[in-house]
Write a structure and sequence with these properties.
Blueprint (H helix, E strand, L loop, with lengths): L1 H15 L3 H9 L3 H8 L4 H22 L3 H15 L13 H5 L1 H6 L28 H4 L24 H6 L12 E3 H8 L8 H6 L11 H7 L6 E3 H12 L3 E5 L15 H6 L1 E7 L16 E3 L13 E3 L5 E8 L1 H6 L7 H13 L8 E8 L1 H6 L8 H27 L3 H16 L8 E2 L2 H8 L11 H5 L17 H13 L5 E6 L2 E6 L1 E2 L18 E2 L2 E2 L3 H13 L4 E4 L2 H5 L6 H20 L6 H4 E4 L8 E5 L2 H10 L8 H11 L1
Parallel strand pairs: 8-15
Antiparallel strand pairs: 1-2, 3-4, 4-7, 5-6, 7-8, 9-12, 10-11, 13-14, 15-17, 16-17
């Protein structure tokens, strides 16, 4: 405890010298356990609490002057709580005679308290509510019309501004939004954004924290919208929210020349090998949960967040956090063909030559070859319990709710039926179906009222600890496990009961008037607040039952090839086969999806009906020329320049509904 005494001594000195502001800043940086100890200490704690009232009020005033009304609301609320001495944590304990007297004992969890916990708890007056008047949401977040380029993702590569379909919709660059639609309740905005007719990909709405991984309203957006009356938000507010969540959500980084992954592997096309470059793609929500780090594990890159976020942001980001990586190289396909490179038969030569000339390829045309698209992350998605399928999760939730209803209906019978063997069979049959559900960490709990209902006794009679013993239960880190629970026997007993009955066992033995019996417990339904918190994850390019990691590289490389003045792009699975991946069906399927992605981009650019003039596919020649070719004609270049290339495909909800129908 010498360290804590030193903290109190330091704070006391600063307060005595009149440096209350400095003392408070020191206090804010302390661990929670130490904050509690300081808060309940006489003199020092009271001085800090008094300072809070003015401090948070001043912060709110500054927020108002800066037109940060959301921050103002929060600080006024904090100031109001301070008046009741409730900040930062449970400072009301300062006024409780028994706890204050044994402050050090409270923190250090002694075995014997000075005062019994069962004495009358302190009665607190409710915290004073301070509700500052806020201007209309339109005044705080006026809508400003922007161009497609201004709405694009900052990928940290100025030449690669992938477009935002969601923000383009708000700004009327397609599917004109009714100009009268300026302010709507949050739920109505969500209905508008997820309307299949508006063709906004759900994956992008997840990336922008508009939706969570269950495709429900994201808690962050719901919280911010709740600052306004009736949760009504403006188009300007929604656009500003999306813009903030775009920051650092998609990042593309080039691999330094000396750190390429396996650059000397076998290549079918030596020109591509000589010109090869590799890129890493970082996507928020993908990569952090990787357990296999087979590639770029030792690569350190400057963190692109520096200067944008907190000053303690790591200086470097590691290559093994990447979502997906690829390789690209350049070559002249028709020039190589006419030089008889890689072709042995006249039949293959004629077939390749005709296909390339059909879309206007000349010997001088340089194409970007997209190859070696891989993802350690994506390989784990299909088999890892860290990730969820939204549709599957909703079905699981329905089944768990159905089980809970069955348990409620069956328990009265189980509690009164004397045939224990029959009861055991019923319990096993019901629980087997639930245990078989693909739920990670499925838990069950018991309602305290059910104990009374079926045993005729209070749930407290089943506990092995008194309220006093429960209060002083250590949390393992120097604090008390139930410190935040209200200081009264009922609340403490209830919290302890819930902890001891919540586990992976779906049944509970109880002692009734006629002896012991067994009932079913309730399944704990995963909360939406768990989604996105790290307990469940899904990346924004998730589809069906796995992630489609080809989308981002194809879209990025098509944009980069255009920006760099290439004449077209080419993609095939030839390099994968050359490297020995031909036996892996899923690897080859990735490239098939990649070739299809090119067609989807053309559809978005309004060039779907032009594919015979700009797109060709060569297959069956068993040469380096197999694959899909896109020629950058003047019409293609014009469309890319005017419309850009979306970071996500068009028609997300429609496509997802179609895929789910196929399951």
């Amino acid at each position: 405890m010498a360290e804590r005494k030193e903290i109190l001594s330091d704070l006391s000195s600063k307060i005595a010298e009149g440096n209350i502001r400095e003392a408070y800043r020191t206090f804010e940086d302390l661990p929670v356990v130490d904050q509690i100890a300081v808060s309940i200490s006489p003199g020092v704690g009271d001085a800090l609490a008094a300072y809070e009232v003015g401090e948070f009020g001043a912060r709110a005033k500054t927020n108002i002057e800066d037109k940060d009304y959301l921050g103002a609301a929060g600080n006024y609320a904090m100031s109001g709580l301070s008046l009741a001495s409730l900040i930062p944590l449970l400072r009301f304990l300062r006024g409780a005679r028994g706890v204050t007297k044994s402050a050090s004992k409270t923190v250090d969890a002694p075995t014997t308290p000075d005062k019994p916990l069962t004495e009358e708890p302190l009665q607190l007056s409710p915290p004073k509510k301070v509700e500052p008047e806020l201007p209309e949401v339109e005044e705080i977040f006026p809508f400003q019309q922007k161009s497609i380029k201004e709405l694009s993702y900052d990928t940290q590569q100025p030449a690669l501004p992938l477009s935002s379909k969601a923000r383009n919709f708000l700004h009327g660059h397609y599917k004109k939004l009714d100009p009268k639609t300026q302010t709507l309740p949050l739920d109505d905005w969500i209905k508008t954004l997820t309307n299949p007719n508006n063709e906004i990909p759900l994956g992008e709405l997840r990336l922008l924290n508009v939706l969570d991984e269950m495709n429900e309203v994201h808690p962050k957006l719901k919280l911010q919208a709740g600052q306004f009356k009736d949760s009504k938000i403006s188009k300007g507010f929604l656009d500003n929210y999306m813009a903030e969540n775009q920051i650092d959500s998609l990042i593309v980084r080039g691999v330094p020349p000396g750190r390429l992954e396996s650059p000397d592997t076998s290549f079918d096309n030596d020109a591509v090998k000589r010109s090869q470059q590799q890129k890493l793609y970082f996507v928020r929500g993908g990569g952090d949960k990787r357990t296999r780090k087979d590639h770029y594990a030792g690569l350190q890159l400057d963190n692109p967040n520096l200067g944008k976020k907190l000053i303690n942001e790591p200086q470097k980001t590691t290559g093994d956090k990447t979502y997906v990586f690829d390789g690209v190289g350049t070559y002249k396909p028709l020039d190589r063909l006419q030089s008889a490179i890689g072709v042995d038969s006249q039949k293959s030569f004629d077939e390749i030559n005709e296909a390339l000339k059909d879309i206007g390829v000349t010997p001088d045309d340089t194409f970007v070859d997209i190859f070696r698209v891989q993802s350690d992350f994506a390989d784990e998605v299909g088999r890892s319990t860290n990730f969820v399928n939204p549709k599957t999760q909703k079905e699981i939730t329905k089944k768990l709710l159905r089980y809970n209803k069955i348990a409620d209906e069956l328990n009265p019978f189980l509690a009164t039926n004397p045939n224990k063997r029959q009861n055991a069979v019923l319990i096993r049959d019901v629980l087997d179906d639930v245990y078989d559900l693909p739920v990670r960490g499925l838990e069950f709990n018991l309602d305290a009222d059910d104990v009374t209902k079926y045993t005729g006794k209070s749930f407290t009679e089943s506990l092995d600890k008194t309220p006093e013993e429960i209060f002083y239960t250590p949390d393992g880190s120097g604090g008390l496990k139930y410190f935040e629970v209200p200081n009264n026997p009922e609340a403490l007993s209830k919290a302890y009961f819930e902890d001891t009955t919540m586990n992976t066992r779906g049944f509970q033995d109880l002692q009734g008037p006629s002896g012991e019996f067994t009932i079913l417990k309730q399944a704990v339904i995963p909360k939406l607040t768990d989604i996105g918190s790290g307990k469940y994850l899904i990346d924004p390019y998730f589809g069906k039952s796995s992630t489609n990691e080809m989308k981002l590289p194809i879209r990025t490389n098509m944009l980069q090839a255009y920006k760099q003045g290439a004449d077209g792009i080419h993609i095939s699975d030839r390099q994968a086969k050359t490297e020995g991946s031909g036996g892996y069906k899923n690897v080859l399927e990735k490239y098939t999806r990649g070739e299809k992605e090119i067609q989807k981009i053309l559809d978005e650019l309004g060039l779907g009906n032009k594919k015979k003039q700009i797109l060709t596919k060569i297959e069956g020649t068993d040469t380096q020329y197999d694959g899909t070719y896109l020629k950058f004609t003047d019409e293609v270049k014009k469309a890319i320049e005017e419309k850009g290339i979306n970071a996500f495909k068009d028609g997300g909800p429609v496509e997802i509904d179609r895929m789910l129908a196929e399951l």
